[in-house]
């Protein structure tokens, strides 16, 4: 009996030892705590309102401030050209000299006729005075006295006619020296010395254009014109005077013109074919950089918002239904918010609803998280979009 008891005891001890070993091994292999879940990181920018200008860009052409086409007022042979083509001329500066010989002779003839009529007038005055005295003593008839008075009036009228003819001859002689009516830059001459010209001919001898100041004619739709007038009236658009607004120029090579101009919005008519109006702006042009006929673009500041919110376009999502949303971090968790977009500004969106100053907008890593998820935040301000530029319309 003792041997059987001892054998059972040994078997039981072996089983217990095996169980203990299994428990120990199981504790070593599966008893370690599970690692903590990794919290994703996202890059954010902090919303900061900024000043933003709304502008309209209008296509236009430069026009000379004043244009004078030079034509002769009397006929004759061109003796000399008195200017350098392409140079600046002053008002009253001689441009051409016509042969004055015939006009000098005509003036001399008119002056001689005037002298003749003045002598006749003196004789008529003496006769009229004498007859006026004789008629009082009945030395002559009343008819003779009346004839003498009529002759006096006729002689006086003849003198007036002769004086007018002298003045006309003097004017025609002066017209043989053709002068510039305005100051400006003169173009090439269409005639040379020896050419025959006639009074008021169709073809101009040359043209003088005043370039400082200079006009810029721009076109705008009637809808935009009405809005422009409303903005001027409300004060949203800065005015330089009644019915005027400030405007700048972008030249054909993309550079900005140095001088600011004044856009006049009065006295316009609508083109029935295109539904547009032509507005005229005036610019200083002291260096004559602008020449007539150049293509330019007028940039008109229409409004300014000192609290505009602009965000990178990559941070905004648009659904198939047209819903515009963005992901933000609020209290360490992701929040989806609906936005209202006004327009694009370069590579940014101008947001008019849904965001406010201080909001943290996710710009990187948003595709890896969902609304309500906890996230780690890192600053991405150095990755933000470039600074804002004026918004251009039209």
UniProtKB/TrEMBL annotation:
Pfam families: Beta-barrel_RND, BSH_RND, HH_MFP_RND, RND-MFP_C
Residue span, Multidrug resistance protein MdtA-like barrel-sandwich hybrid domain: 67-209
Membrane-topology annotation of the record: Lipid-anchor
InterPro entries on file: MdtA-like_b-barrel, MdtA-like_BSH, MdtA-like_C, MdtA-like_HH, RND_pump_MFP
Domain (Multidrug resistance protein MdtA-like C-terminal permuted SH3) ranges: 307-368
Transmembrane segments: none
Multidrug resistance protein MdtA-like alpha-helical hairpin domain residues: 107-176
GO MF terms, alphabetically ordered: transmembrane transporter activity
Protein name: Efflux transporter periplasmic adaptor subunit
Source lineage: Bacteria, Pseudomonadati, Pseudomonadota, Gammaproteobacteria, Pseudomonadales
């Amino acid at each position: 009996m003792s041997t059987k008891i001892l054998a059972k005891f040994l078997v039981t001890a072996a089983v217990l030892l095996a169980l203990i070993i299994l428990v120990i091994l199981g504790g070593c292999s599966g008893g370690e705590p599970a690692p903590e879940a990794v919290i994703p990181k996202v890059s954010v920018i902090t919303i900061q309102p900024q000043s933003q200008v709304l502008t309209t860009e209008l296509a236009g052409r430069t026009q000379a401030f004043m244009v004078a086409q030079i034509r002769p007022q009397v006929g004759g042979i061109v003796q000399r050209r008195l200017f350098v083509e392409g140079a600046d001329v002053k008002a009253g500066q001689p441009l051409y000299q016509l042969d004055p010989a015939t006009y000098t002779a005509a003036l001399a003839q008119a002056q001689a006729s005037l002298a003749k009529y003045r002598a006749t007038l003196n004789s008529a005055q003496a006769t009229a005075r004498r007859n006026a005295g004789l008629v009082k003593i009945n030395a002559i008839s009343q008819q003779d006295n009346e004839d003498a008075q009529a002759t006096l009036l006729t002689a006086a009228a003849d003198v007036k006619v002769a004086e007018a003819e002298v003045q006309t001859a003097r004017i025609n002689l002066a017209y043989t020296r053709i002068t510039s009516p305005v100051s400006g830059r003169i173009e090439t001459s269409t005639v040379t010395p020896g050419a025959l010209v006639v009074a008021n001919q169709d073809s101009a001898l040359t043209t003088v254009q005043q370039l400082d100041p200079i006009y810029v004619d721009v076109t705008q739709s009637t809808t935009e014109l009405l809005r422009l007038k409303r903005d001027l009236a409300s004060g949203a658009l800065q005015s330089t005077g009644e019915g005027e607004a400030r405007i700048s120029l972008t030249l054909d090579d993309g550079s900005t013109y140095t001088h600011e101009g004044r856009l006049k919005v009065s006295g316009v008519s609508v083109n029935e074919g295109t539904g547009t109006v032509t507005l005229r702006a005036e610019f200083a042009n002291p260096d004559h950089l602008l020449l007539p006929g150049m293509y330019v673009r007028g940039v008109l500041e229409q409004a300014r918002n000192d609290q505009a919110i602009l965000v990178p376009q990559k941070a905004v999502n648009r659904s198939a239904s047209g819903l515009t949303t963005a992901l933000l971090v609020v209290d360490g968790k992701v929040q989806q918010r609906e936005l209202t977009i006004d327009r694009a500004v370069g590579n940014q969106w101008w947001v008019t609803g849904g965001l406010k100053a201080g909001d943290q907008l996710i710009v990187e890593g948003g595709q890896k998280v969902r609304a309500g998820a906890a996230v780690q935040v890192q600053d991405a301000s150095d990755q933000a979009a470039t600074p804002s530029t004026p918004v251009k319309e039209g």
